[in-house]
């Protein structure tokens, strides 16, 4: 008489050839942190376009998503570096956009009487005189 054997449906060959299959790999409990990647991308785009003012808008969106991602990274433990990068670049984008706005307003105020001249040469001479304080 033969002893009772349990028949396995998975072959030992499959288990030996694929020890790193997706089902056996450990995963983070919370998964990926999507807002962190989005915040980092918006922060970098905002910083690179902040001189033309639209970067400030990207910076605000990146700052909001970055703060959401920081809260999520506290719970899940993933994406903290990307979230911090997104927050920092977003804040820098906002600061640069505001400074660029102040500079353009100051420049326009200093050279406002030069805008009525006919030629570009007259305009540049007028701007040079206005900025030099003459």
In short:
The chain has 134 residues and is mostly helical.
Determine the number of helices (DSSP H or I, runs of at least 4 residues).
5
Q: Helix content range of the residues, please? A: 55-70%
Which structural class fits the helix and strand makeup? mainly alpha
Uncertain ranges = none
Strand content: under 5%
Largest sheet: none
Instruction: Give the averaged pLDDT, no decimals.
Output: 80
Q: How do the SSEs run, as a string of H and E?
A: HHHHH
Oligomer: single chain
Distance between the termini: 115 Å
Number of strands: 0
Keyword list:
66% helix; rod-shaped; single chain; 5 helices; 134 residues; mainly alpha
Please, could you describe this protein's structure?
It is a single chain. This protein is mainly alpha-helical. Helices cover 66% and strands 0% of the residues. The protein has helices at 12-17, 34-48, 54-76, 80-110, 120-132. The protein starts with 11 loop residues before the first helix and ends with a helix. The relative contact order is 0.13.
């Amino acid at each position: 008489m033969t002893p009772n054997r349990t028949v396995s449906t998975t072959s030992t060959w499959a288990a030996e050839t694929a020890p790193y299959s997706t089902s056996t790999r450990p995963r983070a409990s919370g998964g990926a942190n999507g807002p962190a990647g989005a915040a980092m991308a918006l922060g970098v785009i905002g910083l690179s376009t902040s001189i033309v003012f639209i970067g400030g808008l990207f910076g605000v969106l990146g700052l909001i998503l970055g703060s959401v991602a920081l809260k999520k990274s506290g719970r899940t433990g993933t994406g903290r570096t990307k979230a911090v990068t997104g927050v920092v670049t977003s804040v820098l984008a906002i600061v640069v956009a505001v400074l660029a706005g102040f500079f353009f307003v100051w420049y326009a105020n200093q050279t406002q009487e030069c805008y009525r001249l006919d030629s570009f040469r007259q305009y540049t001479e007028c701007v040079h005189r206005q900025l030099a304080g003459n």
